[in-house]
Write a structure and sequence with these properties.
It is a single chain. The chain is mostly helical and 64 residues long. Helix content is 25%, strand content 0%. It contains two helices and no strands. The radius of gyration is 14 Å and the shape is globular.
Length: 64
């Protein structure tokens, strides 16, 4: 994302919480991800489509 207070429009490395909901799963911590591309890879894995070029799915970590 972009931090509007930083004074430029370059992307910054802000930590952004991710809330995941699924019935029957409570208090799961998937830790800190290297890239937001992991979200796209996880969605692709969930729907069974080709993975994006970047990112690593954490789908198995949610349902383990």
């Amino acid at each position: 994302g972009n931090d509007p207070t930083i004074g430029h429009s370059n992307h910054t490395r802000e930590r952004v919480p991710l809330l995941i909901h699924s019935p029957g799963i409570y208090g799961k911590n998937i830790g800190e991800r290297k890239t937001m591309a992991d979200v796209g890879a996880t969605v692709a894995a969930y729907f069974g489509v080709d993975s994006p070029q970047n990112g690593k799915s954490f789908l198995s970590e949610i349902f383990e």
